Structures are given as structure tokens and as C-alpha cells.
Amino acid sequence: MLPPREFTTVSKGRNCEEVQGEAIQGSPSLLGSIYGRTCVRWNSNRTSMCKINRSIYKRMYPVTLVQPDGSTIVIRYKEPRRIITLPIDIETLTPEQKKLQLQKRKPKRIIQVVEDFEDDFDIGRYRHLWKK
């Protein structure tokens, strides 16, 4: 484990570049501010890295990830899905299981029903309705 980093604060009148310039010119007390330490900026460019203490991050959704062996893990994913299933490695299966998996991958044939309309309509039976 790495030792904790030490932070050097810079007075408000000076910025990190000035401190680093002095360190490069040979000021031994400021060499540590460049090597192994960081400067704290007292302006809008100051940043920090920390853990977000929220169970759900912004625009990340809890999703159940199902691994090929059947175990599940709850992860955060960018899209709102319920379950993500990882593919099975066919090379590790027995020949019977391999055959079943390959049959599942084949596209299923859709049975097309062709309707045969029998037209037994006779227009002559209804001519008397529109005769004058």
C-alpha cells in the first residue's frame, strides 16, 4: 500500500506554477511540492477525487448481470435494463449440451398460413335488386 500523499498549500498570492518555478531554481524546501506532493489551488480550478456516497449514481441504473455459470452480480449500467446475460462458451459444454445450444441459436421457421378465398359469389342472383 502506498503511503498517504502530503498536500502543500500555496498562499493566495501565489499559484502552483510560481511555486514549481522556485523549486526548479533550487529552493530545497519547495522540491517536495513537485515530487510526491500536490499543490492546492485556491481558485475555481481546484478539484478533488472522492467516493460518491450514493447507492445509485446519476444516470446509472442497477442491473443484474448473469454470468455463464449462473451466478449473478448487481452492477450499475448506463441503460435501464433488468437483466444482462453473458453468452455461454460452447467449447466448454458436453456434446449433448452443445447440440441443444446450437438448436436454440437456429432461427425458428415461421409457418405462413395462406388463406384460399373461395369466391362463390354470383352477381346474377342479385340483379333483380337494382333493375328498374
TrEMBL record:
GO terms for cellular component: mitochondrial large ribosomal subunit. It comes from the Eukaryota. Pfam families: Mitoc_L55. GO terms for molecular function: structural constituent of ribosome. GO terms for biological process: translation. Keywords: Ribonucleoprotein, Ribosomal protein. InterPro entries: Ribosomal_mL55, Ribosomal_mL55_sf. PANTHER family: 39S RIBOSOMAL PROTEIN L55, MITOCHONDRIAL, LARGE RIBOSOMAL SUBUNIT PROTEIN ML55. This is 39S ribosomal protein L55, mitochondrial isoform X2. It comes from Octopus sinensis (East Asian common octopus). The gene is LOC115214299.
